[in-house]
């Protein structure tokens, strides 16, 4: 959080966001099953790919919203669980009308928890350019904390942004 916020303050950085999985890198993968509210876990549910993100990641990697909102820094442990989903999952479960609906998603604890759909984003590639679009769930990393994520940065001045990132990383404890 601190690194992203410091880097974003630079005029050399247009936007920044962090994620567990780097799209198209073939590194890291998170997938699991989700269920619509009211659906029992004895039903097959829907197998989805997933990613945990910080606010600003969608803007940085240029995945546009078709409805709803991005995550905020207030989407953290103890607040209402939220998710953003892609168009494919929105169509598959609710004929595209997904905002405000709830999904049963993994919680890091023993039992999945309900999370409200607060945003729907355009479909994008996840692992390879040739893949078929899969249902995707994005979760705010502050609700399911991680020890390691990858910072994504959009800039027109790579050298200046790189210098800033290196400086800020050295300042971290």
Quick take:
This protein is globular.
Written overview of the protein:
The protein is α+β, with helices and mostly antiparallel strands. The protein contains 4 helices and 9 strands, in the order αβββαββαββββα. It has helices at residues 2-8, 57-61, 87-94, 158-171; strands at residues 13-19, 30-36, 46-53, 65-68, 82-86, 102-105, 113-121, 136-140, 150-155. The strands form 2 sheets. A 6-stranded mixed beta barrel has the order 2-3-8-5-7-6. The longest helix has 14 residues, at 158-171. 20% of the residues lie in helices and 32% in strands.
Largest sheet: 6 strands, mixed, barrel
Strand percentage, roughly? 25-35%
- Please give the order of strands in the largest beta sheet: 2-3-8-5-7-6
The proportion of residues forming helix, as a percent range, comes to 10-25%
Instruction: Estimate the global geometry from the Cα principal axes.
Output: globular
Estimate the mean pLDDT confidence. 89
Number of helices: 4
C-alpha termini separation: 13 Å
Instruction: Please trace the helix and strand order, writing H or E for each element.
Output: HEEEHEEHEEEEH
Overall structural class, as computed from helix and strand content, comes to alpha+beta
Q: What Rg is obtained from the alpha carbons, in whole angstroms?
A: 17 Å
Poorly predicted runs are none
What's the total number of strands?
A: 9
């Amino acid at each position: 959080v601190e690194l992203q916020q410091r880097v974003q303050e630079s005029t050399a950085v247009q936007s920044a966001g962090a994620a567990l999985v780097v799209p198209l890198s073939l590194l890291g993968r998170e997938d699991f099953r989700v269920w619509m509210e009211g659906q029992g876990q004895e039903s097959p549910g829907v197998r989805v790919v997933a990613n945990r993100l910080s606010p600003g990641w969608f803007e940085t990697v240029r995945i546009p919203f078709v409805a709803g909102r991005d995550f905020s820094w207030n989407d953290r442990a103890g607040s209402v669980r939220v998710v953003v989903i892609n168009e494919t999952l929105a169509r598959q479960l609710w004929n595209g009308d997904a905002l405000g609906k709830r999904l049963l998603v993994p919680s890091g604890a023993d039992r999945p928890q309900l999370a409200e759909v607060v945003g729907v984003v355009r479909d994008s590639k996840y692992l390879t350019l040739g893949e078929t679009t899969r249902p995707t769930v994005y979760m705010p990393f502050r609700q399911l904390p991680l020890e390691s994520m990858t910072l994504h940065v959009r800039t027109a001045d790579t050298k200046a942004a790189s210098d800033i990132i290196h400086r800020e990383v050295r300042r971290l404890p």
